[in-house]
Amino acid sequence: MQLDVDLERVPLGEGPTPVRELTHLGEQRGQAPIWIKDDGAYSAFGGNKARKLEWLLADARRRRKRTILTGGALGTNHGLVTALFARRLGMRTVLVLVPQPESAHVRRQLERIRATGAELHFPRGVWRAYALAAWLMLGRASPPANLPYFLRPGGSVPLGCVGYVEAAIELSEQIRAGELPEPSHLVVALGSGGTAAGLLAGLRLAGLRSRLVCVLVNDLVRVDERTVARLARRTLRLLRKRGSSVREIEVAAAEIEIERGWLGPGYGHSTPAADRATRLLGEREDIVLEPVYTAKAVAAMLDLNRHGAFGPGPLLYWHTYSRPED
Ligand SMILES: Cc1ncc(COP(=O)(O)O)c(C=O)c1O
Q1: Which helix (H) or strand (E) holds 259?
Q2: Are 172 and 209 within 8 A, CB to CB?
Q3: I need a surface site. Which of 29, 130, 222, 246 has the fewest CB within 10 A?
């Protein structure tokens, strides 16, 4: 199945990203077999952001924008990767960064962000960040009245989600080709919700029955089953509006399961379960997790699988991270 759609795109990565079974976890694995789709391999800067930015930055370029205005928490992957790709396309980036618990990971991310040359602002909280962003929209306009391209934190708007519809279709082709079995459940980290929404729309379009299990890692913005389903429906509407022959399908909030028990004290706070998952996957499977998203997603998946929550499976862990090349 091909996604034929009248939307511009700048290629920032390449699929299909590899799939394999995790065979070295021993008893730590739990009941169901676990497969991974290593979507971090999509680009040198990881899959999660590149798949969204291919469509979003193309839109900014089509509108002749010179500046991208976006934000996130201090260690934002979204901000970092936006700044890197925007620079490659000749655009500058202004980032509004809200506090998050300090850690070696966050400090390293911030160094990487600084090295992109992006203009950085550090408001004290989310509401101040919105006010500052509104002010920067006007203050960073390039003459004559070319406002910056405002990118929602996380890039979770229908156009960005198109990247994940395509990713789910890519997965369905891999299943059809016999590279992996159809998963009973697909587990992914849930931040701003665009990854989950695009995947859900794409899974249903591709006719896969896998249940989407989203592990909530974010309490800075409200994301729930209804917001994810709504974003999936808006993405499908956009595709139809832009000429894609995708069929009318219903996407309901009941099709998503959100696991809320692995957030710990909040966004960006480490948890013992996440630290254990990071060590386990690093030592046994040579997979690098970061503490904010993927470590909590894997911790949840392993705990639930040990309790038999997924039945016989198989499970697919959708890995959204790869360390940016320094
Ligand atoms: C590594 C990683 N995984 C998952 C996510 C969550 O994606 P979304 O914001 O689309 O829910 C992010 C978002 O920044 C991320 O950086």
Answers
A1: strand 256-259
A2: no
A3: 222
pLDDT of residue 68: 98
Model pTM score: 0.96
Say which residues have a Cβ less than 8 Å from residue 55's Cβ, sequence separation at least 6. 7, 8, 9, 159, 160, 162, 163
Separation of CA 70 and ligand 1 centre (Å): 15
Q: Could you tell me the sign of the dihedral formed by the alpha carbons of 28, 32, 33, 34, in that order?
A: negative
pLDDT recorded at residue 326:
59
Q: Could you identify the atom of ligand 1 that is nearest to the CA of residue 197?
A: 10
How many angstroms separate the Cα of 15 from the Cα of each of 6, 54, 171?
20, 13, 10
Describe the strand order of the beta sheet including 119-121 as a list of residue ranges. 119-121, 92-98, 67-73, 149-150
Whether the bond into 314 is cis, omega within 30 of 0: yes
Go through 27-64 and write b for each residue having 16 or more CB atoms within 10 A of its CB, e for each that does not: eebbbbbbbbbbbbbbbebbbbbbbbbbbbbbbbbeee
Residues of the chain with pLDDT under 70: 1, 324-326
Rg (CA), the chain: 19
Q: Which domains does the chain have, with CATH numbers?
A: 19-49+156-319 (3.40.50.1100), 51-155 (3.40.50.1100)
What's at 18, amino acid-wise? P
Give the pLDDT of residue 213. Answer: 98
Strand partners, 185: 211, 315
CA 49–ligand 1 middle distance (angstroms): 8
Distance 257 CA to ligand 1 centre (A): 17
Tell which residue, 287, 291, 288, has the closest CA to residue 263. Answer: 291
Q: How far is the CA of 144 from the centre of ligand 1 (A)?
A: 35
Relative to the CA of 194, which ligand 1 atom is closest?
A: 10
CA 142 to ligand 1 centroid distance, Å: 30
Atom of ligand 1 nearest to the CA of 321: 1
Tokens of 113: 């962000």
Which residues, in sequence order, are bridge partners of residue 187? 213, 317
